[in-house]
Structure formats: structure tokens, C-alpha cells
Amino acid sequence: MEIDFYLSKTNFQKCIFDNNVYIKKYMHNSNIISFYVHDLFIFTNYTRNMLPKVREWLKSKFEMRHKNDQLSYGLGIEVTRDKNKRIIHLNQSKHITNIFKRFNMENSKPIHTPLKTIFKLTKDQGPQSNKKVIS
Questions:
Q1: Is-contact 51 42, C-beta < 8 A?
Q2: In this predicted model, what pLDDT tens digit does every residue of 31-85 receive, in sequence order?
Q3: Interatomic CA distance for residues 65 and 7, integer angstroms
Q4: What is the pTM of this model?
Q5: Within a domain: residue 100?
Q6: Which long-range contacts (CB under 8 A, 24 or more apart) does 98-104 make?
């Protein structure tokens, strides 16, 4: 795969949990590139000017269209962000509603599941080192 070659060549490492996610870490900074079919997402905690540089580098290698700097919807996931509280909220209700409509199940009745419907994720639940994330 051509994108795999270019990302590996520039020190991006493939995530062991998902072959379509690449991570590049430098000190306390990270670039994450995720792609699926024709959608590509770039996440970075570098300074604001790093995102355009990564995007331009990718555009020089691949045919791409740029939509916007902040992800609001992708792969069936709605993304909302509160920068002040440093919170990212992911929601798939729109995607699920579309699936119900496609299969004529809009009037289905919900049932309770044995799992909690709200989980709060913390840094402590994530990998404690890069080696646990990157193959």
C-alpha cells in the first residue's frame, strides 16, 4: 500500500490495534493519521501550524481534498469538542438512526442492556507506554 510506504518512511508507526492508524511521537507531541477507504483524519497536539504542514505533505504525495480543520462528522461518528474543558464527545446516534431508517426499523422499541450506557475514559485506562500502542 502506497500510503503505508510514505508514512513508514517518515517515522510514522502503525498502531497495533488498528492497521489504518499511524502514530508519530516526538517528545510530548503526537501526530495521528487515521484513514478508512476515502476518509483521512489528522490529529495533532503540536502547535497550530503543524496541522497545515502535515496536510500539505500528504497532499504532495496523494490526491486529496481538504474539508476543514476541525472534525465534526466522520465514519458515522459525530464529534463535538469543548476546548475550555478539554473534552471531546463522540456520538453515533445519527449513524444509528440512519441504519434504522435503511432497514425500516424506525418504530422499533428499545430494550435495556446489561452494560452501563455512559463510560468515563481516563488516561489511566490507556497504554502506559508507546510500546503498548505501536507495533
A1: yes
A2: 888 887 777 788 777 666 677 777 888 888 878 776 666 777 777 888 888 888 8
A3: 19
A4: 0.57
A5: yes
A6: none
* Residues 37 and 31: beta-carbon distance below 8 Å: no
Please state the three-class secondary structure of the chain as a single string: CHHHHHHHHCCCEEECCCCCEEEEEECCEEEEEEEECCEEEEEECCCCCHHHHHHHHHHHHCCCCCCCCCCCEECCEEEEEECCCCEEEEECHHHHHHHHHHCCCCCCCCCCCCCCCCCCCCHHHCCCCHHHCEC
Instruction: Assess if residue 28 is contained within a domain.
Output: yes
Q: Does any domain span residue 121?
A: no
Structural domain count, the chain:
1
Task: Return the C-alpha torsion angle 81, 82, 83, 88, nearest 10.
Answer: -40
Tally of residues, the chain: 135
pLDDT score for 103: 94
